[in-house]
Amino acid sequence: MNPFQYQSGELTAENLPLSTIAEQFGTPCYVYSRSALEHNLQAYEHALQGIPHLTCFAVKANSNLAVLDVLARKGAGFDIVSGGELQRVLRAGGDPRKVIFSGLGKTEAEIEQALNVDILCFNVESDPELDRINAVASRLGKRAPISLRVNPDVDAGTHPYISTGLKENKFGIDIAAAFTVYQRAAAMSHIDIVGVDCHIGSQLTTVAPYLDAVGRVLQLVDRLSDAGIKLEHFDIGGGLGVVYNKETPPEPSELINAVKEKIRGRDLTLIMEPGRSICANAGIFLTRVEFLKHTDHKHFAIVDGAMNDLLRPSLYGAWQEIVPVTQTDTAGASPDRPEFTYDVVGPVCESGDFLGKERVLRIAQGDLLAVRSAGAYGFVMSSNYNTRNRSAEIMVDGDRATVVRQRETIDYQLSLEQVLTD
Ligand code: LLP
Q1: What's the rounded Cα separation, in Å, for the pair 73 and 418?
Q2: CB of 377 closer than 6 A to ligand 1?
Q3: What is the torsional sign of CA 84, 90, 91, 92?
Q4: I need a labelling partner for 295 at 20 to 30 A (CA). Which of 37, 41, 58, 328 fits?
Q5: pLDDT single digits (tens) 262-320
Q6: pTM for the whole structure
Q7: What is d(CA 391, CA 368) in angstroms, rounded to the nearest whole number?
Q8: Is-catalytic flag, 349?
Q9: Given ligand 1 and candidates 62, 150, 159, 202, which is best to mutate, with the most ligand atoms within 8 Å of its CB?
């Protein structure tokens, strides 16, 4: 489902023209579609029907309270990687009993916080982390539910920065060592073993690496079972890709049906941690052309959004489609908007500051542009570099828009700082 379609030549979010949003709330801003978020979650829930399951939205992909609220209302659980994300989930009305705590550097304070609200499970990524969780649980007089995140050593075939399931990655416990670590965990006083977890990477566009990983982890599950260690759930992580350009990722149902087939006959709850595939195409980044700059070598569209707002293009060389909000005449009868091949760049003082390169556009100063597929790893990765205020975030529901995060102000930014007093 694409909630950002042209209606009478105007790009809309659901039923609201993006130009209206820009007028009301200014640019740059992120715009999310409530129905697309719900629809994308539903694709998982629907495919998982018939087996015990839980869909835990990966909060890191988009942690806005309203996004979490929309998903929590539809029964989603959450995959978190920090105490801060846990606070967000609770604030948004999420159920702590559906929270999985991933991440490889959990602090004592974060573990305590999570134990105090009785989360579903800690995904443990190392031996010393296991010891720490046991110690904190013991101090609190609690038992900590854990699964080990195993590293199955499969190549997810994705960008090296977002590939996590290979031996050389920092994530997880080597699958060859996992049996011994489970045995240690089983002997610990304040640990309950509840599951196993793997996450092999992000923006995966084929099912094969998942099935490879699942097959390897199931061998471990069976070996543990033979040794009397029975697991309740298998968490296969997130990572399903989306269409940014010409990718052809599988639908959640294709992946899930194949996994269901593999785990059939075992009494395991299937947990998934999707982030991108729930929210990437439920959001766009809206920006306005400040200037057009034509040099002998290049044409630049200088826009009011920048790498501090949307980092993916600069950081990964990621390609995201950029379209004009008002459709221009493709037949060429648009003298005030001649066609050029533009680099769409922001005002930040770095050559690496671009939202897109070599885009054929017919635009004029003051036009609005939408960067598609920006609902995941967009706002969450933004910063105040160059003392730029972070963007507003807007949620659209039908023809109604709500500001779900206000645009920052300079006063807000400076409020944590002070000059020396002597
Ligand atoms: N579970 C774990 C343990 C993860 O590390 C991640 C993502 C997910 C779930 C969710 O993966 P997803 O379904 O969203 O692919 N900033 C990068 C992506 C980093 C992904 C980090 N881990 C990007 O913009 O492409």
Answers
A1: 41
A2: yes
A3: positive
A4: 328
A5: 999 999 999 999 999 999 999 999 999 999 999 999 999 999 999 999 999 999 999 99
A6: 0.97
A7: 15
A8: yes
A9: 202
